[in-house]
């Protein structure tokens, strides 16, 4: 019997699903994490014979109810449904930060890299009646970001590996910051690395199936993976939010 632990970077998974399935499209957000993980592990039964999922850890952060009250309410229902239905065994919380930042005004080029906006008509900058062509426009904007999910994934992965709590791991994230803990885990247990999005798997998370103890695998999710693994409605007594 191969005991498998599943570690989920929830925001990485959510934004990948939104890009794949569509922001305003229903039918993918009510995701059954355990069901998805079971399918992924079953696909690699030849590498991991007799594997069963022993533990699912979902790493996330609660969004701001002040900035997005309806979104916070929907998230709360989903988190309760995950636990009540047994779709996850544990939720590890990071923090959600809201703040004001000042940054140079910019557009993006074809490589999606910033291009600083310079003065030109109809908006220009002058000093003492003379143009200042190299002036920089500054913008003050609100920003909302999650902190800690990647660190929590890494911490659970390494602590559980060292404690001998499982025989194989599945990491659902495409965050290159997980490079070192994932590489260290591969030296000790087989690791399945799941890219939640449609783009390339981060090079830092790539590797060889035979590295370390071997029997590692990689998988990239597609839209049907989300739509095909939805929680029942209700799930653990909690109803799917409208539009989900």
What are the SSEs and their pairings?
Layout: E1 2-9, H1 10-21, H2 33-43, E2 51-60, H3 69-85, E3 90-93, E4 95-104, E5 106-108, E6 114-116, E7 126-127, E8 130-131, E9 138-147, H4 149-163, E10 168-172, H5 179-186, E11 191-195, E12 217-220, H6 223-227
Parallel strand pairs: 1-2, 1-10, 2-3, 10-11, 11-12
Antiparallel strand pairs: 4-9, 5-6, 7-8
Helix pairs in contact: 4-5
Task: Give an overview in words.
With 244 residues, this protein is an alpha/beta fold. It folds into 2 domains: 2-94 and 148-227, 5'-nuclease (Rossmann fold), CATH 3.40.50; 100-142, no CATH class. It has 6 helices and 12 strands. The chain has helices spanning 10-21, 33-43, 69-85, 149-163, 179-186, 223-227; strands spanning 2-9, 51-60, 90-93, 95-104, 106-108, 114-116, 126-127, 130-131, 138-147, 168-172, 191-195, 217-220. The strands form 4 sheets. Strands 3-2-1-10-11-12 form a 6-stranded parallel sheet, sandwiched between helices. A hairpin with a 5-residue loop joins strand 5 and strand 6. Helix 4 runs parallel beside helix 5 (179-186). The longest helix is centred in the first third of the chain and has 17 residues, at 69-85. The protein is globular, with a radius of gyration of 22 Å. The two termini are 36 Å apart. The model has no long low-confidence stretch (mean pLDDT 95).
């Amino acid at each position: 019997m191969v005991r498998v632990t599943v570690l989920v970077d929830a925001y990485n998974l959510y934004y990948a699903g939104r890009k794949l399935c569509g922001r305003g499209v229903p039918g993918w957000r009510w995701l059954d994490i355990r069901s998805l993980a079971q399918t992924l592990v079953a696909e690699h039964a030849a590498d991991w014979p007799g594997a069963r999922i022993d533990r699912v850890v979902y790493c996330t952060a609660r969004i701001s109810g002040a900035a997005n009250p309806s979104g916070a309410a929907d998230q709360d229902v989903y988190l309760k449904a995950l636990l009540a239905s047994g779709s996850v065994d544990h939720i590890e919380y990071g923090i959600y930060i809201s703040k004001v930042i000042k940054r140079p005004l910019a557009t993006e080029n074809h490589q999606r890299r910033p291009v600083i906006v310079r003065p030109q008509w109809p908006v220009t900058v002058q000093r003492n009646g003379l143009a200042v062509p190299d002036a920089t426009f500054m913008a003050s904007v609100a920003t909302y970001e999650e902190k800690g999910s990647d660190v929590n994934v890494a911490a659970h992965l390494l602590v559980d590996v060292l404690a001998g709590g499982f025989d194989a791991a599945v990491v659902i994230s495409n965050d290159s910051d997980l490079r070192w803990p994932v590489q260290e885990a591969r030296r000790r247990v087989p690791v399945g690395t799941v890219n939640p999005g449609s783009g390339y798997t981060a090079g830092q998370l790539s590797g060889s199936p035979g590295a370390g103890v071997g029997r590692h695998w990689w998988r990239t999710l597609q839209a049907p993976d989300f739509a095909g693994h939805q929680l029942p409605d209700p799930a653990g007594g909690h109803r799917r939010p409208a539009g989900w």
